[in-house]
Amino acid sequence: MFTGIVAAIGRITSITPLGAEADSGVRLQIHAGALPLADVALGDSIAINGACMTVTKKSADGFTVDVSRESLNRTVGLDAEGEVNLEKALTLAERLGGHLVSGHVDGLGAVTHFAPVGESWKLDILTPAALARYFAYKGSVVVNGVSLTVNNVADGADGCTLSINLIPHTIAATTLKHLKPGTRVNLEVDLIARYVERMLSSMAPSR
Question: Does residue 64 surpass a pLDDT of 70?
Fold first, then answer.
């Protein structure tokens, strides 16, 4: 489990194919940036742009993960060198500063608007229609591993558009500063919303 509070900006420094087949995954070498690694052991989980990955090797300033083709097909930002948001798995001794996050990407959204408004930034994301029912005004969403509050939900034929306000700290402490219209992003819906939907569907009268 994670909180969606990014601990550091790291960087994918190398990508090595794990095989020659089309369905082969890749091995990523990650420079951890300011993320402390002293308490990280082999087999631990670290969220990379919101996707939970397992540490397979560790060095003084970075770590290695293997990413399956299935994960590559369902995420963005793990197939090219560049900056990534990093968060170590949550412990019971830490504050839950964001919200409960599983690190499992539910779908991909597309940025439709990203521009400054006063001291903050307004971010609009078009989400897949299949995920629209999970979003609500003042609810939570994870965008590239960052826990954010939804300020508005506008339903449409192609899905729904989420409007989000980003404060200067979020811009400075995450890779969201690099977003622009057309950029695809990893989305994770609120965990509680997922369970509520399941419970309500099981209560529906059979026909």
Answer: yes
